[in-house]
Write a structure and sequence with these properties.
99 residues; 6 strands; mainly beta; 0% helix
Length: 99
């Protein structure tokens, strides 16, 4: 079986808040989420004609240290609706540094 193609929309809105008066340390907070729809049918002998979709909501939290131009971000999502697939959640941690 070959799975069909998916279309995914990742979304989020965030606000940077200074934690120090000199703006060297910034906190980023806000809601985020994603929506995924299967847009083509599965193919192969074991394929069915059902398409899956999932929708999730959560939040994002980050710290940016401007003197190092480095950031640490965390995203957490809860899938509140899933059709024809497993439902769960996800957690992501990312670190970025400008060189």
């Amino acid at each position: 079986m070959t799975p069909g193609d998916n279309l995914t929309l990742n979304w989020g809105i965030s606000q940077f808040l200074p934690l120090k008066k000199d703006m060297s340390l910034l906190l980023e907070v806000g809601p985020a989420g994603y929506d995924t729809w299967q847009i083509t049918d599965d193919s192969g002998s074991a394929a069915s004609n059902t398409r899956d979709q999932v929708h999730a909501v959560g939040g994002q939290l980050g710290l940016t240290y401007m003197p190092w131009v480095a950031s640490l971000n965390v995203h957490g999502f809860y899938e509140y609706d899933a059709q024809n697939r497993f439902q769960g959640g996800s957690f992501e941690v990312s670190i970025a540094k400008k060189f």
